[in-house]
Each structure stands twice: as structure tokens, then as C-alpha cells.
Write a structure and sequence with these properties.
Strand content: 15-25%
Order of helices and strands: HEEEHHEHE
Mean pLDDT: 89
Distance between the termini: 31 Å
Largest sheet: 5 strands, mixed
CATH class: Alpha Beta
Number of helices: 4
Shape: globular
CATH topology: Trna Endonuclease, Chain: A, domain 1
Radius of gyration: 14 Å
Structural class: alpha/beta
Helix content: 25-40%
Number of strands: 5
């Protein structure tokens, strides 16, 4: 599978998150970089189209999904909700959690928006 092209901002966010995840003991990291396997699609049923997360990792027998919240994601929040809800359901089934990677200065706004939704997602804060 060919690697997808990502923006410099997303690349920086993901690389910061990967460094943190390695320290915290996550393994089997799948990310859109040549040194990692590509993340696979996540779907409810094999007959449905799925979505590819920004990054997947494993820890303590659970599967965790990480999604970057860059400026574009924050602007198109409602369009991305079906994808994020699917990721949240998937990680619940796989004894993991959905994490949003967000800049520290935007994390409080994201937290407030997440409270409005029926999701168990958490935020991974990174510095700009």
C-alpha cells in the first residue's frame, strides 16, 4: 500500500506523538511514514467502507487510535464525526481508546467539544 501524503503540520504532530508513545510503552505503531507500517482501514462490517486513522498503536493488549486535530480538522469537525465515532466504537471493542492529538493551546476547546459528544476519547497534548 502506498503511503499517503500528509501536511507538514500533521507530520510534525504525529512525530511528536510517536516520540511520546514510545516512552510510554506503546508498540506496533502504524503511521504514514516509511519507517512504519501503514495504518489499515477501520470499519464496522466488511461490507462497509472504512476510514484510515492517522496512527494506530498497541499497549497492554489494547488497540489505540490517534487522530491529529490540525486547523483543517477543527474547521471541519462535523464532517469528521462519523469517522471519529467509528474509531471510538472500534477502540472500545479492542480494549483501547481513541486519542486526539492537539496543541496544548487548543486542547481546552477540544475538551469542551468532546463533552458534547457521546465518545470516550481523550486528548494527547503536544507543544507547538
Amino acid at each position: 500500500m502506498a503511503k499517503t501524503t500528509i501536511s507538514k503540520e500533521r507530520e510534525r504532530m504525529l512525530k511528536s506523538a510517536i516520540a511520546y508513545l514510545r516512552i510510554k510503552g506503546y508498540h506496533e505503531i502504524k503511521a504514514p511514514f516509511k519507517e512504519f507500517p501503514a495504518p489499515q482501514s477501520v470499519f464496522r462490517k466488511a461490507s462497509e467502507a472504512g476510514f484510515v486513522p492517522d496512527m494506530i498503536a498497541e499497549k497492554d493488549f489494547g488497540t489505540f487510535i490517534f487522530e491529529c486535530l490540525d486547523e483543517e480538522s477543527l474547521e471541519n469537525w462535523d464532517e469528521r464525526l462519523p469517522k471519529w465515532k467509528l474509531f471510538d466504537e472500534y477502540t472500545d471493542r479492542k480494549m483501547g481508546k481513541l486519542y486526539f492529538i492537539a496543541y496544548s493551546d487548543e486542547a481546552d476547546t477540544v475538551t469542551e467539544r468532546l463533552k458534547e459528544l457521546d465518545m470516550n476519547a481523550k486528548i494527547l497534548r503536544i507543544k507547538r
